[in-house]
Amino acid sequence: MSRHQRRRQSLLRPRRLAAPPLRFFMPLSLLACLLVLLVLRGLATNEVFHDTRIAQSVDKTTVPEDLLKGGPVIDARDKKAEPVSYRIPDKTVVLSFDDGPSPEWTPKILKVLEDHQIRADFFVTGSMTTRNPDLIRKIVADGHEIGLHTFTHPDLAYQSHARISWELAQTQLALAGVAGVHSSLFRPPYSSDASAMDDWNYPVIKYVGSHGYLTAFIDRDTDDWKRPGVEEIVKAALPAKPGAGELILLHDAGGDRSETVEALEQIIVKLQGEGYRFTTISDALGAPSAMVPVHGYQLWAGKVFIWASKVAVVTLPVLVALLALVGFLNFGRFALMVVLAPVHARRSRKQGAWGEPVTEPVTVLVPAYNERECIANTLNSLAASDYPIEVIVIDDGSTDGTADIVEEMDLPFVRLIRKVNGGKPSALNAGVAAAAHDIVVMMDGDTVFEPSTVRELVQPFADPKIGAVAGNAKVGNRDSLIGAWQHIEYVLGHNLDRRMYDVLNVIPTIPGAVGAFRREALREVGGMSDDTLAEDTDITMAVLSAGWRIVYAERARAWTEAPASLQQLWSQRYRWSYGSMQAMWKHRRAVTARGPAGRFGRIGLPLVVMFGVVAPLLAPLVDLFLLYGVLFGDTPITLASWGGFILLQSALSWYAFRLDREKPWHLISLPLQQVVYRQLMYIVLLQSTITAFTGGRLRWQKLRRTGEVAAAPVEG
Fold first, then answer.
1. Which residue did the predictor score with more confidence, 709 or 256?
2. In this structure, what CATH number is given to the domain that contains residue 249?
3. How confident is the model over 665-682, as a mean pLDDT?
4. How far apart are CA 74 and CA 389, in angstroms?
């Protein structure tokens, strides 16, 4: 057997449903992984957890006087003793650079330091470290010292101990991942000299010290971030007292640092001319380097974090492109519906649009398998029909007494065929073979018709080019929340779609609950097929490809009992989506065919794939970005954008309800329906896709019915 034949059999043969826990695990895990990637990308770009608040100076009643008047380096590591401070020795300068590394300015600063053979301290943020690993490695390789400046650069006076610990640990993780080191040096964001400590930030210094960090404040603040001019930066860097040691603050990131680079050269030349030596903080204090190599778990955890962050940065443009595709498909579908649905509505209102009224009797086929709760309601609704019909109930090996109920009802227009269980397609084929009339109406055993349904359904057959007609399937049990959601889906997602597809002459599915065929069209395509689990979609595509026209009769209403739980809904939609994929695959050659099949293959099939598979499969990205935007982004703009989308969806839904002559009060549940349904359809479609490509087995699952739809609902 060829690989092509094996692939075809893999996609078309019956399959078994995945184990319940696994059906949700993989799709939801994928969404969770994508959300983690978004968060990692947000961390790398300093969008996640970003806090721009800056504390104002308060009283200093808790800060020891000797610290306020002491040196810039504070050691609070001994929990049993008071913190102590250290000064930079005379004639010694430590250059320190905050907020980097920057791919634009850090290399220029490193070049100046290298030219003068000077070592310095770089207080880096975790987000910049994650984005610029090569620069961190160069800083270490050139002998400079690295200190921590937090991950997201918040004012720690506003942060909890847990947040402070996270900021430090995450930055250490980034350092381990890019350079294999940790550092015990720390500088708080927005800090100044030691005299600026107050009752808010002093507890931060003690807490950080208790975790093993030396805190490095400064002696001289150049304010280079304000871009005051090269001369002012140089002036601010020079010692207030000749010969005194100093720790100078500069910046290598956060904006245009061209003045800093130019001033750095002059600062070095001037101070070297005055006999100063340049070194690192640890060396100036006569202490071992603040940087220590890491090994084992810490090293590999850091590498995994950096690798995942890189993947996240690369993945985001892909996710944004897919989100744009979802938007394009949804708005494109909205536009087609708005333009084409009114065309169909105007045509439907035309009297005698199809020619002379059709009055010849027709055959109604009711395939039934274990429908004891519903079959009487179905037949009673047909008994009230205002059109001449014969009804054939094909009992497909029921084990619950369905056939006995039909016999007991003893309706004169009903014939009963008993057969061994062979599936719905074989039952329908048996009914077609026994039908006495040329037009065959098909309905499900859990569906009820209105008195006018059959008459409205068969009128288009006045046009000899029409081979099949799709009716208007509606949800009968719509009073529960899940029923209301399906009611919205049927009106908007099925019936409004059918109006659009009708005008384009590419209706892909005649609903099994209410549809009609010419026997000639059925014979031409070989009857109902059991190649797929969506025999209604399969036969519709076959009839279209054979050159017959298919139309939608909106007034031919049928009321069906929809699944009453999410579990049952999932089972039904899984079968529908998987069966539809089978049908698309089966008719894939229509894309390159000529004539009517080619028209369907190049217009209808792509639309079904884009609107029925791709868009719902990618739709959870909307909710993913919504969640990310609310938690980490601009919440008002995010919610406003989502609200705009819901308003557009609501407007289209209201229009669809108006066309279907439905009361719109069920639309109150639309926002929640959109969120829940997107996830459910995503799970269904992803699982169906995986099943299709892995060759899993999926079997037909009979839904549990209650028979609560006894007649067409009447809304007050």
1. 256
2. 3.20.20.370
3. 83
4. 96
Global pTM value = 0.77
One domain, residues 328 and 289: no
3-state secondary structure of 449: strand
Whether the CA torsion 609, 614, 617, 623 is positive or negative: it is negative
Total domains in the chain come to 2
Structure tokens at 175: 């350092």
Model confidence pLDDT, tens digit, residues 204-259 = 999 999 999 999 999 999 999 999 999 999 999 999 899 999 999 999 999 999 99
The yes-or-no verdict on residue 536 having pLDDT over 80 is yes
* Residues contacting 306, CB < 8 A, separation 6+: 130, 133, 174, 177, 178
For position 387, which CATH number holds?
3.90.550.10
The 414-419 sheet, strands edge to edge: 414-419, 389-396, 362-368, 439-442, 515-518, 466-475, 549-560, 447-449
Residue 704 lies in a domain: no
Per-residue H/E/C for 435-460:
CCCCEEEECCCCEEECCCHHHHHHHH
Task: Say yes or no to pLDDT of 635 above 90.
Answer: no
Sign of torsion over alpha carbons 477, 480, 485, 488: positive
Residue type, position 12, single letter: L
Task: Verify that 338 and 286 share a domain, yes or no.
Answer: no
Domain co-membership, 458 together with 592:
yes
Q: Which residues contact 114 (CB under 8 A, 6 or more apart)?
A: 142
How many CA within 13 A on the CB side of residue 196? 17
What is the average pLDDT across 1-16?
A: 43
Q: Give the DSSP per-residue string, 88-132.
A: PPTTEEEEEEES---TTTHHHHHHHHHHTT---EEEE-HHHHHH-
Residues labelled as active-site residues: 98, 251
Q: Which domain holds residue 233?
A: 73-294
Of the candidates 216, 213, 223, 222, which has an alpha carbon nearest to the alpha carbon of residue 292?
213
Phi-psi region of 212 (alpha: psi -120 to 50; beta: other; left: phi over 0): left
Residue type, 668: I
DSSP reduced 3-state for 218: strand
32: confidence class by pLDDT, cuts 50, 70, 90: confident
Residue 445, domain member (yes or no) = yes
Would you say residue 681 has pLDDT above 90? Answer: no
Position 480: which residue type? Answer: S
Query: What angle in degrees, to the nearest 10, is found between the helix axes of 535-545 and 566-586?
Result: 30
Which ranges in 157-253 belong to alpha helices (H)? 161-179, 202-210, 230-237
Helix 566-586 / helix 481-488 crossing angle, nearest 10 deg: 20
pLDDT at 224: 97
pLDDT band at residue 8, thresholds of 50, 70 and 90?
Answer: very low
> Are the C-beta atoms of 514 and 457 separated by less than 8 Å?
yes
